[in-house]
Write a structure and sequence with these properties.
Layout (H helix, E strand, L loop, with lengths): L2 H13 L14 H4 L5 H28 L5 H36 L4 H25 L12 H22 L6 H8 L2 H8 L11 H17 L1 H6 L5 H32 L5 H16 L3 H8 L6 H14 L9 H28 L2 H9 L1 H9 L2 H4 L9 H34 L14 H4 L10
Helix pairs in contact: 4-15, 4-17, 5-12, 5-14, 6-11, 6-12, 8-11, 8-16, 9-19, 11-15, 14-15, 15-16, 16-19, 17-19
């Protein structure tokens, strides 16, 4: 019997355990099945082959022992850690982005259409370059780039509608700034309600309802001093404008409910930067026909739309002044930094939506209101445009922070309580606890022997 035949028989033995016909071909019996005429050479070959089998088996056992296995608890902890990092990055970048965007608007207020179109255009360039670099470097695979492009068109359209209705409702002084800030934070309420509808069908606990109420109290408290000082507001005259801003927040919440559905359910492996590159592409294209409405909002003659756009692009990109009443140098510096932090903010927002939820993203973003109000009061941040600081802002900040901790903490604590109860009691079934729906991304990676439904 040659070595090839011996190897075939050995493989047959390994692959046909518990079969009676295989016992006579085990490595220990190979010696009895060899050709007697082969003598000592055959015995030596058999011994070498048996030693090789033992060595391979020991190597496999040692290799399996050296590879650490991630426990279900570690999987959940890792996802919670990733979510914390991304949410923190989202909060910091969005806060800085909001401050810089305000500085840009103050320095060059006559180019809103240029500002609206430059953002998706720069996003298209940057996100496309990032995607290409990652793909060439084999950091992302083809399956991470596969999704129907009409979905990016839907998101881009919703974003354009947000800008349109926001600009229409925010024009002039019929709705003072503090009221606009309050109305814009109602995106949390709409997102919270839309999550309960198909396709997400999320259920919320009484603690989460309480956190949303607490959030509203925190918002109102943080701008209470500004509301008292506001003048010229009449609900009867401003009702249409208020409804337009409300519509903008409805479209904004719908856009991120749609994004959450796509990233968590339909395309969980989709590269976020690739999605944003297509969203920016469609947002830029859809924004072009909206230029007429932007001109109407601004009070600009239709014949001057594209000349105004060109002047705005030169102002923001190169700092070139075409109008002595504006400060293009300051606007350009702030705009470039604004674009950088805006890219980080958008990427972190998409990943946060995938790991958490749209409502969680807006709850975190709501914390920017009191935080930005504090920063707006510092002259080293806003210069001569710094606003007056009021102690109620601090109270509002802590109320908003508390609402965030209640909303997210209730899910996380309950999830771990169920897991550890399963370990201690040996067996349990998850009760009909609605707050677990927000932890789908965490529970889907856990083993079935840890939590049984």
């Amino acid at each position: 019997m040659d070595n090839k035949t011996t190897l075939e028989i050995a493989n047959q033995t390994i692959n046909c355990e518990n079969k009676p016909n295989c016992e006579e071909y085990t490595p220990l019996n190979l010696k009895s099945n060899k050709n007697p005429d082969q003598g000592e050479d055959a015995n030596q070959n058999d011994q070498e082959f048996n030693n090789k089998l033992d060595l391979d088996s020991s190597n496999k056992e040692s290799l399996s022992e050296t590879i650490p296995k991630e426990t279900p608890n570690e999987k959940v902890n890792n996802k919670l850690f990733k979510l914390t990092i991304v949410i923190s990055l989202f909060f910091v970048s969005c806060t800085i982005y909001s401050l810089l965007l305000k500085k840009v608007a103050i320095a060059a207020p006559i180019y809103p259409f240029s500002l609206t179109q430059l953002s998706p255009l720069m996003g298209l360039i940057v996100y496309s370059l990032i995607t290409v670099a990652l793909y060439v470097g084999k950091k992302i695979k083809k399956e991470e780039l596969a999704f129907p492009k009409y979905k990016a068109f839907i998101i881009g359209l919703l974003f354009c509608l947000v800008n349109l209705f926001q600009n229409l409702g925010n024009r002039g002084n019929l709705v003072p700034g503090p009221y606009v800030m309050i109305i814009n934070n109602f995106v949390v309420i709409f997102s919270f309600l839309f999550e309960k509808l198909p396709p997400l069908r999320k259920k919320h606990t009484r603690y989460q309802y309480f956190s949303v109420v607490l959030l509203i109290i925190g918002i109102v408290t943080s701008v209470l001093s500004k509301l008292i000082a506001a003048r010229g507001f009449s609900m009867k005259k401003s009702l249409l404008y208020v409804l337009l801003i409300v519509c903008a927040n409805i479209f904004l919440s719908l856009s991120f409910i749609f994004i959450e559905w796509q990233l968590k359910t339909k395309h969980p492996k989709l590269a976020v930067q690739y999605l944003w590159s297509w969203v920016c592409f469609f947002q830029f294209l859809i924004g072009i026909p909206f230029s007429l409405l932007n001109a109407k909002i601004q009070g600009l003659d239709h014949s001057k739309i594209w000349s105004n756009f060109e002047q705005g692009v030169r102002c923001f990109v190169t700092g070139t002044n075409s109008n002595q009443s504006i400060n293009c140098h300051s606007a350009s510096v702030s705009w470039w930094f604004c674009i950088c932090f805006g890219m980080i903010y958008n990427l972190a927002m998409g990943v946060s939506t995938r790991l958490g939820s749209a409502t969680l993203v807006w709850l975190v973003k709501t914390m920017i209101l009191p935080t930005a109000t504090i920063l707006f009061s510092f002259k080293w941040v806003m210069g001569e445009n710094a606003t007056q600081f009021h102690g109620l802002v601090i109270l509002g900040f802590f109320l908003v922070l508390l609402s965030l901790l209640i909303y997210r903490g209730d899910n996380t604590v309950e999830f771990f309580k169920l897991k550890y109860s399963k370990k201690m009691n040996g067996f349990m079934k998850i009760p009909q606890n609605p707050n677990l729906s927000d932890l789908e991304s965490f529970s889907e990676d856990t083993d079935s022997d840890i939590i049984e439904i």
